[in-house]
Amino acid sequence: MKINFLLLVISALLAAIVLVVANPACAQVQLAAPTAKRSLPPIPGLGPAPVLPANPTPAQKADYARQMAERTRQRWNYLLTDSLMRTKVFNEAPNALLVETVQGHPPGTALDADMGEGRNAIYLAQQGWQVTGVDIAEKALAYAQQRAKKLGVPLKTEVHDMATYDWGTNKWDLIVLSYAGGRDYAGRVFQALKPGGLVVLEAFHMDATSRLEVVGGDYRVFFNTNELPKLYGAAGLKIVRYEEPIGTADFTKEKLRLVKMVAQKP
Ligand SMILES: C[S@@+](CC[C@H](N)C(=O)[O-])C[C@H]1O[C@@H](n2cnc3c(N)ncnc32)[C@H](O)[C@@H]1O
Q: Are the C-beta atoms of 148 and 125 separated by less than 8 Å?
């Protein structure tokens, strides 16, 4: 009787194992160990995120956008002036694509959009470029100015939202969009570059959203496959280099799929 019961339990267990292995749905449940997305640490003093009501009025949409922009400013003011974040989470060295692109290139005028704490702008200034860095995070710009002063290099900075900034016409030999977005900028970049001028853009591929939290649902630094060459090609720029490699991201130091583009105004 006891042996019969034992055999019954063993065969039930075996049947369960066979079911799990053979059934793809069960196997998926087994394999799909929850991989937590990496998110940035909480920002001291930053209250709860605003909520956009269902069917918002234009005024509610505008208010939500204003509150989100203010949160972005506070977040980057904190993150980029926190020494631990700068050294442990972000790459303090200049962006490698930018360094490769300007090597051997005669310096000229450069616009560093969404400059941050100045790693790229200061590198360019050290190579003789006349750099203007624009960002909404005034504390990050102040930090960059301090560093530039210490290093004895000239750096012009402006606290401004890039969406409403006057990029100028035929003004820049180089525009840097390093983890700064670029989806809405192609036309402005074309107009603002001098003929022969270059735009250097690096950001995350959309694939990286499986690992990274998309803060506030803002996809400005995430791009779909071939989205950028299509946008910038259509705006009249010549694509000099375009890659979507798995690489070390400057803003997480993780291996993620990135997008890297260099384009030139003919
Ligand atoms: C990921 S950091 C990149 C900083 C810098 N480009 C770099 O590669 O080191 C993003 C920066 O964009 C700035 N930013 C975000 N939205 C902006 C906007 N609408 N106008 C200007 N700056 C903005 C943030 O303040 C922050 O400094």
A: yes
Q: How many residues does the chain have?
A: 266
Complete domains list, the chain, with CATH: 83-264 (3.40.50.150)
**Ligand 1, closest atom to CA 73?**
25
CA 85, 91, 95: angle at the middle one, nearest 5?
A: 150
- DSSP H helical ranges for 112-263: 119-126, 138-151, 186-192, 227-234
Q: How far is the CA of 13 from the centre of ligand 1 (A)?
A: 56
Calpha distance 85→78 (Å, rounded): 9
**DSSP conformation class of 157:** E
Query: From ligand 1's centre to the CA of 151, what distance in Å?
Result: 23
For the whole model, what pTM was predicted?
Answer: 0.85
How far separated are the first and last CA of the chain, in Å rounded? 89
The tens digit of pLDDT for each residue in 71-100 reads: 999 999 999 998 888 888 899 999 999 999
